[in-house]
């Protein structure tokens, strides 16, 4: 049987006080996830939680499919979907999220680093929008970065126009164009590019009961 504690708390008290001490280089990463009550029941009865791919937003199917492929390529595990976690987030944000997750369960976990794929939360939206991710170069000014970004966008639109897909969805683009865009997204999977205070998310194929250190039902 799982041996992690399960408690209940109001939304404003579900998150403990103080700093969490996130360390993205740790052997076991400190992670948080909000899950429905049935997920807790699955952890308690089956000893593990696996994702339900049908919960992925259909509007962003291409971005999710890419993330799933990257997980299969980079992680020793496999699966049909992903469980999503916060790997570095402010306490204030977790408290605010708890207010939106009344009736759910906040799980605090420590998962071995090799079973987790980290990604930059804000930059992940480049994949959701099927747009290029462009890192700033060391020492690059804001104006120089803006000019370079404009050139990249102009080149992308010209390639789309030449392929006859300027106003068509991502999956209708030529394979080489999709591949180049996806290659730019790989940069936000690299923790060495993250700023000290950047919000970081994580995905995993499975959550095991022994990974969970605390569970709080949010009243």
TrEMBL record:
InterPro entries: DUF3841. Pfam families: DUF3841. This is DUF3841 domain-containing protein. It comes from Arthrobacter sedimenti.
